[in-house]
Amino acid sequence: MGLRFRKSIKIAPGVKINLNKNSMSATVGSKGAHYTVNPKGKKTATVGIPGTGISYTKTSSTSGRTEYGTDNFQDNSSFSSPNSQTPDDPDKGKWYQKTSWIIALLILFFPVGLFLMWKYTNWKKPIKVIITALFAFVTISAMTSPKLESMSLSADTSKTYDINQNIKITAEILPSDYDIPDSAFKSSGGKIKISDDFIVFSAPKAGSYKIWLEYGGIKSNTISIKTEDKTAIEKEKAAVAKKKAEEEAKKKAEEEAKKKAEEEAARKAEEERIAAEQAAAKAEEEARIKAEEEAQAAENAASQTVNETTVWLSATGEKYHRIPNCGRMNPNTAREVTLSEAQSWHYEPCKKCF
Question: Region (Disordered): which ranges (predicted)?
Fold first, then answer.
């Protein structure tokens, strides 16, 4: 498979240069009717009805050979015939007489190109008339076409959009029927998609983007579009919420543990208080019992002391006396004994001193 190369460069409305791998040509006209000439003198005229597939093509060269191509009709006329005058060799003569230079001047400076075409080319008069008429049409169109007055852009810049979201932009051009190229739309980043029905902007990354129009020496206002990665933001919010929930749960657990420890300490303190009260009550009871026991012992001791009281016995008689000088006994013969002893000996108390 051979490598092919073809590129068309638009010079003016209805005029373009065709660059091939081995040649160059110029085309004048529109899709319905256009005329192509190359430096070697080959001329191709095409007339058709756009959108129907019906067209008529006629090609002629400096050799006098004419080729026809039809879809639904034929034309028996020709641009040239074998008996017509054969043009000069385009590679001979002065530079401005050569076809390639004439074509170049037709494209770059058409007034001179038209003059040289009429003077030095052997193209048929109808072809020259058609080319002249086309250039006249282009010139008149350029002179009468509306002049660009102003351009402005508008969009909802009050909110922040998601990345890769299509953001609608409205362009107002004065006059409204003025056609500006897509290249007039400028931006500091992102992508601008333009169609007949809408203009949308999208950006793959979060940030702030500037968008404006610039064409024909006129610059529009600049609008700012802000974008953010909403998915990443939601994930970050979820992570922050999760961390906050974990911290709150940890704090709550610590508070519950602290509360439980305080309740446990209070319970132990209450138990210790109750134990202390019980111990105090027990000690008090024991002290009371001990006091009672000591009082009882003292009472017993006192009773025993009473029982051990000393009495006096006389040498004769069966009575014991409280004092040795009782009138009923001889003090010289009295002897001292304990009450219990006297009672154990069956002595009875003296009615006088007891």
Answer: 58-92, 255-304
